[in-house]
Amino acid sequence: MFNYLRQRIEAWKDYPQRSGKRIGPYRIERYLGIGSYGITYICTNVRTGEALLLKQAKPSKGRRALELLRRESGMLKRLKDERIPAYHDFLDLKKSGYMVSELVHGSTVEELIFLEGRTFTEAEIVHFMLRLSDIVKYIHAQGIVHLDLRIPNVIVSEEDRLHVIDFGLARMIGDAIEDLPLTEPEEELAEFRLRRTPAVESDFYAMGHFMLFMLYAEYEPSPDEPERGWEEQLTLSAHVKGALRRLLQLDSPYRDADELQKHLILILNTLTD
């Protein structure tokens, strides 16, 4: 009963703001979605008419959500690259905090796979990962790790440009790991460390899973197929399989984005010869 009431109270606190509401010089146009610590909207700067992204610290998460949103704002201020949303503003209001950033148009890789039914060849995937690794290389060069490189967080624009979005979990390289779920089984703790340790290997690990999603886009399991791992289910070239094993830290992991890029270029040349 207590959990039910808590969930109802949190849902009430986090109910989306209405369209037309003004937050400083920004007018909310429509609700986009809700995450663990933030609520996002499309808004308009009423002074300039520019459409932007407005992210609100999730009220039910209190100070923690506001702290994370302030940190994300700091990350975006440091990152000045057209493939990453530009920082615009931060509003620290009495009841909540709001970050304003560039609104990136296009489709996420999640939408391309699950809504549009896109599939990819090995060569297309390696080329895509090479382009993504160039953005990741820039992020790492600023001393930052993204820590959430998932298919909903990479957008492909109509001009076929890649954009990495949502820096809500981003950290400085070498920071201490946060929010470690100490009550979870050891296997889940190990997975959490692989994904959330503020080190470049964590982003590479996420890229390995990203690559698997793209590879599985055209996979059709048979009705009675027993549960098997990706190495048994997918028919991959030895070079692609080797890169995946290194990204997933099953073999010696890549030291940095330069090493990853060089390997991907070699693989791409092999696949396109």
Structural overview:
The protein is of the alpha+beta class. It folds into two domains: 10-102, Phosphorylase Kinase, domain 1 (2-Layer Sandwich), CATH 3.30.200.20; 107-272, Transferase(Phosphotransferase), domain 1 (Orthogonal Bundle). It is built from nine helices and eleven strands. It has helices at residues 2-13, 62-78, 109-114, 122-141, 186-196, 200-216, 230-233, 238-247, 257-272, and strands at residues 22-23, 26-34, 38-45, 51-57, 87-92, 97-102, 107-108, 144-145, 154-156, 162-164, 171-172. Strand 5 (87-92) and strand 6 (97-102) form a beta hairpin. Helix 5 (186-196) crosses helix 6 (200-216). The model has no long low-confidence stretch (mean pLDDT 93).
Overview in brief:
This protein is of the alpha+beta class and about 270 residues long.
